[in-house]
Amino acid sequence: MTESSSHRNRATGVNRSLSRAWTAPVRAMNRFLGTTDGIAEPGRVFNGTAVVDCGVYVDGKRASGDFSPDEALREACSRENAFVWLGLHEPTEAEMSAIARTYDLHELAVEDAVKAEQRPKLEQFGSVHFLVLRTARYVPHSELTETSQVVETGQMMIFVGERFVITVRHGDASRLAPVRADLESRSVLLEQGPWAVAYAVTDRVVDAYVEVADQVEADLDIIEEGAFSRDKGSSVQQIYQMKRELVEFRRAVVPLQRPLATITAPQSRLVPKEIRRYFRDVQDHLTRTVEQVSSYDDLLNSILQARLAQVTVDQNNDMRKIAAWAGIATVWTAFAGVYGMNFDHMPETHWQYGYPGLITVLLGVSVLLYRAFRRNGWL
Question: Residue 231: its pLDDT value, please?
C-alpha cells in the first residue's frame, strides 16, 4: 500500500467515525449482541466480529442494504418468502451466545458450534435443525515425508430455521464466498428457502471431498511405486503417516452418510421435496468418495504388508551375507587356532615354505567358499 492510499484510508476512517459518532450507544449494544460494528467493508466482511456476511433474501433475491443479525431477522419476519443467511467464522462463546439469544438457538447446539469438535450429525432442537459437517482440504506438498500433512480438516455447522440459516465455519477449508455468489445467481433455487443454502454448503463440502480423494490417489500411486522400487523406496514411516492422514479424512467422510440418508429418505419431511432431489445428488457423490476411501485404506494395508515383507526379506539377505562371510572367516580362524597351540612337535612348523604355503591354502579355500556362496545367492 502506498503512502497516499494509506493517508486516504486513515482520512476515510476518521470521517466515517465522525459521521457515526451519534450512533455510539447503538454500536456498543451491537457489539454486545455479537453484531457488526458499522457498515460492511467491501466483500461484505464485518470487522471486529465473527460475522462474515449477513443478508436477507426475498423471493430468491438478496435485499439491498446492510443488516446486523438482529435487524436481518426482523426484516425477514416482516416479509413474505424471506429468510436470513448469516455466515460466521470461528465465533467466540460470547458472540455465539448473543446470536443464540436473537435466533432462539438451543444451548447444546451453541456449545457444539463453539467447540467445533463434533462428528457429522443431524439434530433437531424444536423448529431448528442442526447439521454438522467436517470439511477437508488437500495440503499441497512437493515431497511426501514422514511428517507431511496431506489432509487438513475443519468443521461446518448449519442451523436451519423457518426464517434463517446460520453457517458456522471453523478452519480454512471450504470457504463459502463462492457458494454465496453462486446461489445469488440462482434465484429459483434460493426461493426454496433456508434448506437451499444448507444444500449448497453441503454440496461444496462434499465436492471438496471428491477433490481431496482424487489428489490423495496420486500420492498413493507414488507410495505404491516407491514400495516396489529396486532403489530406496517408500519407508514404513511414510506409509504409516499416509495411513494416519487417510484415517483423518475417513472420519470426515464416512459419518456424513447417516445425516444425508435421513435428509433424503422418501418419508422425510425435513426439507422441501425439490431440495431432496439435490441432496440425493450430493449423497451419490459422498457414496463414491466413501468407496474410494475404503479402497485406499485396503490399498495402503496391502502396501504396508508388502513393504514389511520386503524389510523381512532384506534382513534375511543381510543375515545370509553375514553368515557367508563368517563361514569364510571360520577357515582362517580354525587354522590360526590349531597352529597357535604352541606344541613343540607340529607338522611343518619348521618348514621353510610353511607360512606362504598355509596362506596359499587359506586363500584357495576362501575363493572356493566365496564362489559356492555366490552361486547359491548368499553373496
Answer: 63
Calculated CA dihedral for residues 342, 343, 348, 353, nearest 10 degrees: 20
Vertex 53, ends 185 and 193: CA angle to 5°? 50
Contact 177, 253 (CB under 8 A): no
Local confidence band at 261 (pLDDT 50, 70, 90 cut-offs): very high
3-state helix, strand, coil in the chain (%, to 5): 60, 15, 30
pLDDT tens by residue, 65-83: 889 999 999 999 999 989 9
Contact 147, 133 (CB under 8 A): no
How many angstroms separate the Cα of 283 from the Cα of each of 133, 206, 217, 355?
13, 9, 21, 86
174 and 192 in contact (C-beta within 8 Å)?
no
Position 194 scores a pLDDT of: 93
Three-class HEC string of 135-148: EEEECCCCCCCCCC
CA–CA distance from 208 to each of 75, 203, 211 (Å)? 34, 9, 5
Q: Amino acid identity of 199?
A: Y
Average pLDDT of 283-300? 92
* CA 226 to each of CA 149, 236, 317: distance values in angstroms, whole numbers, following the listed order: 19, 11, 20
Query: How many other CB atoms are there within 10 angstroms of residue 55's CB atom?
Result: 21
- For residue 221, pLDDT over 90 is answered with no
Mean pLDDT of the chain: 81
Q: Which residues of 123-145 are buried (b: 16+ CB within 10 A; e: fewer)?
A: eebeebbbbbbbbbbbeeeeebe
Question: Residue 43 and residue 53: Cα distance in Å, rounded?
Answer: 8
Write down the pLDDT at residue 361. Answer: 82
Indicate if the pLDDT at residue 47 is higher than 60.
Answer: no
What residues does 124 pair with on adjacent strands? 129
Residue type present at position 162: E
The Cα 106–Cα 96 span in angstroms is 11
